[in-house]
UniProtKB/TrEMBL annotation:
Identification of the protein by name: Caspase family protein
Matching Pfam families: Peptidase_C14
InterPro entries, A to Z: Pept_C14_caspase
Sequence ranges assigned to domain Peptidase C14 caspase in this UniProt record: 2-214
Annotated source species: Paraburkholderia phenoliruptrix
Length: 233
């Protein structure tokens, strides 16, 4: 039998996605998961839409007898489930990953919060030409972007369970780096989501301290539905 597994993950602001991919890969290769060969598994982390489409075309040409598709990352719903592939916000619909093989299993670990029409068109790109001519304008755009996010309870921790959060003469290590995270925003980036801000700070903290691993509890919705940490004037 010809097998094929396609494991896709969007790690943008989500600490657990890389682990999801490794765990699923390990499960497939285990006896319990069917003893798949590594050559039968394709792992795509934060792929571009072009890269993914290329892989899908090769899978179709190969005509596997059985195909498993697993996605872990950000998602939303607008007539169909949308999957966000990478930090650039490239999206595909779930139906684009279906009906590729005669026997196929698709698993989606993502949010499916409904995108209202007004919100769906309210993308960050719409702000590209906006100018910050006053504090009131900053507040207006900030408020609008916060209200665009789906209702959620986002939690950021300076360390993992059983660990200690370090303090320094310059302030708390994690909080200091979290507040510096907007400095890494691209010139064309208007908003910084809480997930990306946390990831930016986490990487620095874990480089400085091998015994402190910041943690988070975030919803896996689309970038346009996430809460933001900062706005760039």
């Amino acid at each position: 039998m010809k097998r094929k597994a396609l494991l896709i993950g969007n790690t943008s602001g989500l600490q657990g996605v890389s682990l999801d991919l490794r765990r699923f890969d390990g499960f497939l290769k285990s006896e319990r998961g069917g003893a798949w060969n590594q050559s039968e598994i394709t792992l795509l982390e934060n792929p571009s839409k072009k890269t993914l489409y290329g892989v899908l075309e090769r899978v179709k040409r190969d005509k596997p007898d059985y195909l498993v598709v697993m996605f872990s990352g950000h998602g939303g719903h607008a007539r169909s489930t949308k999957l966000e592939l990478n930090q650039d916000g490239e999206e595909i619909y779930d139906r684009e990953l279906e009906n590729i093989a005669a026997r196929q299993l698709n698993i989606y670990d993502c949010c499916r919060a409904v995108l209202q029409p007004a919100v769906e068109s309210f993308k960050a790109e719409a702000y590209a030409v906006a100018t910050f001519d006053s504090i009131s304008r900053v507040r207006e755009l900030y408020d609008a972007r916060i209200l665009q996010a789906v209702e959620q309870q986002a939690i950021l921790y300076a360390c993992s369970i059983g660990e200690y959060a370090r303090d320094t003469a310059q302030g708390a290590l994690y909080l200091k780096e979290l507040l510096k995270s907007p400095d890494a925003m691209r010139a064309d980036q208007r908003f910084l989501t809480i997930g990306i801000a946390h990831e930016t700070a986490r990487r620095v903290v874990e480089t400085v301290r091998s015994d402190q691993h910041p943690d988070s509890c975030l919803v896996k919705c689309l970038t346009s539905q996430q809460l933001i940490f900062a706005i760039s004037p």
